[in-house]
Design goal:
heterodimer, A: alpha/beta, Rossmann fold, 9 helices, 29% helix, B: mainly alpha, 0% strand, globular
């Protein structure tokens, strides 16, 4: 477990993160809108940058030298002219962790064997991210910190990467991912932290987040031409096309609606997350 | 450490080939005794080979200092940066040693050891200053521009411009021996060590 106490970060006199206390356990997802401070928080957890003076981070109650952290930054586009195997070998040697057998095992586990002699600049976004994950695992870390794992990837690449991360989590490696894509969180994580404007606004299980929108999520069937009217009622979560110019709309409202054409439905992660960001109060 | 360098050199392979070609041309020129004095060839070594070698050494750290992954790669380089840098200085000084040996063989009035120590300190100071600037500016082309300008001024004024520190000895008449090189060698070495210390502090 990673215990975070009083984590703050000030950049150019502006508080980017403000007194965050959290316990990171299992596979933890950190979610928040763009500019919320996720990347800065991930960098501090990964010990890439320091927090402000009173920040305390405790890794498994261990002293500094007793744990190892693997970190994959949001942008991982290093050494375009080197091959995958060269890059991983170089990084492993820089950390005095070169072990060819382990490297081969990593490449095989992350389905990278066929790419190992390809130059980094020729790889697709998804493959590059998986090389990044391999890089983060080079030191056989206790904690794996991954910033925006699926940003810019297509659906198939996202699925491959999420599967890889789930496999990694079985090896007693604690994973922390940050994302603004709900599917990344719901498909991998069992613990969630939501931050907005540099402060923690939720910590708990993913299913608990749904409580924030309980009783406020509805489904309504309307004419396609009347969708715009629904924006006045609340936040449109999804639109599904039906036959005869009709659409089924899922909507999150600020107040319960009595209109019988609005059918209450179970709230979920997405509606709970949006309600939370909009300042909803847990029911 | 050598294994790290071997992979890093792959990233700058065309530049290494270019440098090697320059050495081959120079060694051929020395071998055929094209010039009556060793000084012209030694000047070419100082003004062409030393800066190019330095730029390559600096460019080897472009991954860490010149791209977007600076913070992330710092976690990898932490303890090794200075070691890799110093090792590079020695490796890049090896062909210079060869050139000075051949010069000393071909030209009897040329002191090979004095010339090598001077070249070594020139390489050390030139690359330390370039690397230091790279740490703060983060733009490799800026470093090349600044130092090319410096060399141009030195060449245009033939080392007589008083407001500049002279890393190189620009003399076509005096024989290269310890009496002519000792001052520059010592100053280069002291300034090189100073730059290297500042570099070590800045990088950590």
């Amino acid at each position: 477990m990673i215990q975070i106490r009083n984590l703050s970060k000030t950049v150019k006199k502006k508080k980017v993160l403000d007194s965050i206390n959290a316990d990171i356990k299992g596979i933890t997802g950190i979610i928040g809108p763009n500019g919320a401070g996720k990347t800065t928080l991930m960098k501090i957890i990964a010990a890439v940058i320091d927090g402000d003076k009173n920040t305390e981070i405790n890794y498994n109650n261990q002293r500094n030298e007793d744990y190892s952290i693997g970190y994959l930054p949001q942008q991982f586009d290093i050494y375009p002219d080197l091959t995958v195997i060269n890059v991983l070998t170089l990084l492993a040697r820089l950390k005095n962790q070169y072990d060819m057998e382990y490297l081969e095992e990593l490449l095989s586990n992350l389905n990278l064997i066929e790419y190992k002699n390809q130059k980094m600049k020729t790889l697709s976004g998804g493959t590059l991210r998986r090389v990044g994950v391999a890089q983060a695992l080079l030191t056989k870390p206790d904690f794996l910190i991954i910033d925006e794992p699926t940003a810019g990837l297509d659906i198939l690449e996202c699925i491959k990467l999420r599967t890889s991360l789930l496999n990694i989590s079985k090896k007693n490696i604690q994973i922390v991912i940050s994302s603004h894509i709900p599917e990344d969180i719901t498909s991998i994580c069992n613990h969630l932290i939501v931050i907005n404007h540099g402060t923690k606004i939720f910590e708990g299980k993913i299913k608990d987040l749904a409580n924030y929108s309980a009783g406020l999520t509805y489904e309504v069937v309307v004419d396609k031409s009347k969708i715009s009217l629904l924006y006045e009622e609340g936040t449109v979560l999804s639109v599904e096309r039906l036959l005869e110019e009709k659409v089924k709309v899922r909507i999150l409202t600020e107040q319960p609606i009595i209109d019988p054409s609005f059918h209450p439905i179970d709230s979920d992660f997405l509606s709970g997350y949006i309600a939370l960001l909009k300042g909803g109060i847990e029911n | 450490m050598i294994n790290i360098l071997r992979i890093k050199y792959k990233a700058v392979f065309p530049l290494l080939i270019f440098l090697m070609s320059l050495y081959i041309v120079e060694i051929l020129l020395i071998w055929v005794c094209l010039f009556p004095s060793a000084n012209i060839l030694f000047l070419l070594t100082q003004l062409i080979i030393v800066p190019i070698s330095s730029f390559i050494i600096v460019y080897l750290f472009n991954d860490l200092l010149g791209e977007r992954n600076t913070l992330f790669l710092h976690t990898y380089y932490k303890q090794k940066f200075i070691k890799i840098y110093i090792l590079n200085i020695f490796i890049f000084a090896m062909p210079m040693l060869l050139v000075t040996i051949i010069l000393a063989i071909q030209y009897s009035d040329f002191n090979g050891s004095a010339a090598f120590f001077l070249l070594f300190t020139e390489l050390f100071l030139f690359s330390s200053l370039s690397l230091l600037l790279f740490v703060f500016i983060g733009d490799f082309s800026f470093i090349v521009t600044v130092f090319t300008l410096y060399i141009s001024v030195e060449l245009a004024t033939f080392g007589t411009y008083k407001n500049l520190y002279h890393i190189f000895i620009m003399s076509l008449h005096n024989n290269i021996d310890f009496t002519t090189t000792v001052n520059t060698t010592i100053f280069n070495l002291i300034l090189g060590i100073l730059s290297c210390r500042i570099l070590k502090i800045s990088i950590s």
